[in-house]
Write a structure and sequence with these properties.
532 residues, alpha+beta, three-stranded mixed β-sheet, 20 helices, 45% helix
Length: 532
């Protein structure tokens, strides 16, 4: 099976490379391109989530991209890249010398890899000369995420305050009420509720047709199959993936995959699956299918982004069952403590300029304009139509469904920002629009506020930044190690012939065979060297 997957990966990589060379051949040039009116011209990658409204054009050519090209100091050609394949596509493009002049990625590990491969420009001098607006508007703690071994290779995008708690597990409060159950407080409570949601007819339709735990990923309508719901529960064990945790003698750091925290998180998921509290086909479902199961009352919980229960989502739930009442799941305590679902770092994504960029100055000027003023129209729309200012803060107004349509995927175009939306802005929005909002609009916004507050109420331990502390060995080995661990843990959850304990033994053996003990020593030595 592993050999088959290796063959598939090789074929996919070759296809991507050919596509990248063909699709982006115009970006490889020995001199800077010039656009209309003598302005410099650059190419900018834009992530395609596959949900851009067709009546507004395409992701690369629409009303917002037209506005950008009317107002930006440079002319921009947008190059869409599929969100689920973005790192593989960039890797192929960078290798072929055909990458757009500006690329962006959420993956810290990909950023590290690109730096080590010497595919990115060092940006300190460019920032000082052309990026004063960035320096004025982007917090230093955000800029720090763009450094590797002290050198600046990316201009990270600032994450909104309301986007720091990026994920939430939602639960059907009406099902709890129907069964006379309280909101679960810990893992034991949660198991009992999931059992009741599966076997005690929580929707009172007289049928045994529900599951308690939505183990799949409802991240977005366009996301693929996955273990997103399980990952969110494991986070509550203090074992968020891709981290190093203080563990073992002297609180030295271990990679999270081999800690008891993560192993026991998977063991809890294994019990839910083995006891029939999860749809056995969950891992084949797309994000839209996982969402549909929750909307139509087939599962009692779902893991989604905090803002997912918007007006359209809630309307669909009410159409399926007028009494449907989704609420944020209380942050469960685990045997290892009580941790928030997930609190993202202050930097949302890494925005990078490849070494093949034909006009680095123009690329930095574009980012500077975006961080200074371009972000407002792109992200929030037209003042008076989509938003107003109240006490200097941006408050969204109007029909939220229309606004969602008008600004769909707009934020992926705003790769730098000079504004940070906070929970208090959502509360002001609710108060300002009270007279004009429908009840379902108010409920949707209240759910988002409650979910945001619930997530932020509890500590989420980063332990150490996800950056590998400038260790090339970590960047080289950890992606392989982590993928091996995840694949084997997930297989153990859904295969009753394999236990998580057996998977753990196999993972430990593979880690040691790949040189983990030496890597662990290097990592902990680096921690001490940096005084972390």
């Amino acid at each position: 099976m592993q050999k088959q997957w290796k063959r598939i990966l090789c074929v996919f990589t070759a296809v991507v490379l050919v596509f990248a060379m063909a699709a982006c051949s115009q970006t490889k040039t020995s001199k800077a391109a010039t656009g209309s009116g003598g302005r410099p011209k650059i190419t900018v990658a834009v992530m395609n989530f596959g949900t851009f409204p067709s009546d507004r054009g395409t992701l690369e050519k629409n009303d917002i991209t037209a506005w950008i090209n009317e107002n930006s100091p440079v002319e921009v050609e947008f190059i869409p890249v599929t969100r689920s394949e973005v790192t593989a596509l960039y890797t192929a493009m960078l290798a072929a010398g055909t990458a757009p002049d500006i690329i962006s990625d959420y993956s810290v590990e990909a950023f590290e890899r690109f730096v080590i491969d010497e595919s990115l420009l060092e940006l300190e001098d460019l920032l000082k000369e052309y990026g004063q607006g960035i320096i004025a508007n982007v917090p230093e703690e955000v800029i720090e995420w763009g450094r590797y071994n002290g050198a600046l290779y990316a201009i990270p995008k600032t994450r909104d305050g309301i986007s720091v708690p990026n994920w939430m597990t939602y639960i059907r409060q009406d099902w709890l009420d129907n069964l006379g159950l309280s909101m679960p407080q810990n893992m034991d409570d949660f198991y009992k509720v999931m059992y009741a949601f599966t076997f005690n007819d929580p929707d009172k339709n007289g049928k045994n047709d529900t599951y308690g735990f939505g183990a799949g990923s409802g991240e977005s309508a366009g996301s693929g199959p996955g273990f997103g719901g399980i990952e969110r529960i494991i986070s509550l064990f203090g074992a968020m993936r891709d981290r190093w945790l203080p563990y073992g003698p002297g609180d030295s750091y271990d990679h999270v995959a081999i800690t008891a925290n993560r192993r026991d998180g998977y063991k809890f998921a294994e019990k839910l699956f083995d006891d029939g509290l999860i749809n056995p086909e969950f891992f084949t479902m797309t994000g839209q299918q996982a969402r549909t199961e929750f909307i139509t009352g087939k599962v009692g919980t779902i893991a989604m982004q905090v803002s997912s229960i918007d007006v359209a989502f809630l309307t669909a739930m009410k159409e399926s069952n007028p009494n449907a009442n989704p609420v944020p799941l209380k942050t469960l305590s685990s045997p290892y403590g009580q941790f928030a679902n997930l609190q993202e770092r202050a930097a949302q994504m890494h925005v990078m300029i490849p070494t093949t960029c034909s006009n680095p100055a123009a690329a930095m000027q574009y980012l500077n304009w975006m961080a200074t003023s371009g972000w407002e129209r792109i992200t929030y729309g037209i003042e008076g139509e989509h938003f107003v200012r109240v006490n200097g803060r941006i408050i969204q107004i109007g029909d939220p469904v229309k606004n969602a349509h008008d600004l769909a995927e707009a934020r992926v175009l705003a790769i730098a920002t000079g504004y940070k939306q906070e929970i208090s802005d959502l509360e002001q929005q609710l108060a300002y629009n009270d007279a004009t909002m429908s009840e379902i609009e108010k409920q949707s916004l209240r759910i988002r506020i409650a979910a945001t507050r619930e997530s932020m109420e509890h500590e989420f331990k980063w332990w150490l930044p996800t950056l590998n502390l400038g260790l090339a060995s970590a960047a080289e080995l950890l992606p392989t190690m982590n993928q091996f661990a995840t694949t084997n843990y997930e297989a153990a959850v859904i295969d009753k012939n394999i236990t998580v304990d057996q998977a753990y033994t196999k993972i430990m053996a593979e880690y040691n065979a790949l040189g983990y003990q030496q890597l662990r020593k290097e990592y902990n030595d680096r921690v001490k060297e940096l005084g972390l």
